[in-house]
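Reopening this ticket.

The earlier resolution said the output was attached, but the attachment link was broken on my side. Pasting everything inline this time so it's all in one place.
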Amino acid sequence: MECAIITTYRCNARCGMCHTWKHPSKSSEEFKPEILRKIPGGMKRLNITGGEPMLREDIRDIVRILDQKTRRLEISTNGYFYDRIEALAREFPNITFRASVEGLPALNDELRGMKRGFDRALRTILRLKSLGVKDIGFAMTISGENCRDLLDLYTLAASMGVELANAVVHNSFYFHKEDNSIGNVAEVERVMTAFIGMLLRSPRTYLKKRVKDWFRAYLNAGLLRHVQGKERPIDCGAGTDTFFLDPWGRILACNGSETPLVMGDLTTHSFEEIWNGEQAEQVRRQVRECTRHCWMTGTAVPAMRRNPVAPIVWVVRNKLRVMLGQPICI
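Inline output:
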């Protein structure tokens, strides 16, 4: 199982595709780190996110507890507070980091409403590399406004030997948005198709990173299907394979729904009581009946792991098509 800890809805960025910063949580109301001890151990992957998680003054306590719960602890950040991130990495060198950017410097700073935002994200990556942190990279949310920077950003990430994670704009309670849309669909389709081809032809030196790019191509094919208004390639396992914890300590099925699908309150109940309770079963029924067809990393990657045959077949088939000079089958 996998989970994401939404530590706060406070954020120092001013992104247009996400209005969480307009609806911040109050630090006095956010969960205390101690409740995280209730989360079961042995998680496949655990993501610390926000808002901007580095705004939590007790982020070190949060990391210290969660680091014992999973084989892979990841922090999603905009990279602005690079000194705090560096201090965490020195203490917890095995953590994964992703610094979110929306393109190259000028476009990133415009879309995120942050002066020197790209500069500080890049500084975060460089400092983590100098510390020898193994799994680091950028993350980008693709939209009509920034798709022109996608291929160049991947080239930069690959040349640096770091990852580039991807999403596309979505609407949900989590983003406080229901009007995100892509007007120039044809351009986005063209760029994303070219990007998927680049991933399948990954230039990376190490085989493990090349293989990761191949399966990221499948993930991006799902993103492109979402842009095109098609169904997701694998059924959603939200509330079964994965869950989210919001800043108030509520366990949610996902972050892609129109309103929060609350399974229970971890501040007042044990995880087992919530997970096996009737309210959680009602939420799972809602997930099975959901028609939003979102495809976001938090629920898409667990679905891929649960159903590995479909991604493997897709990768093998499209690797062959690329080798033969044929178009990719999305």
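Reporter confirms the inline version is readable. The first helix runs from residue 59 to 66. The mean pLDDT is 96.
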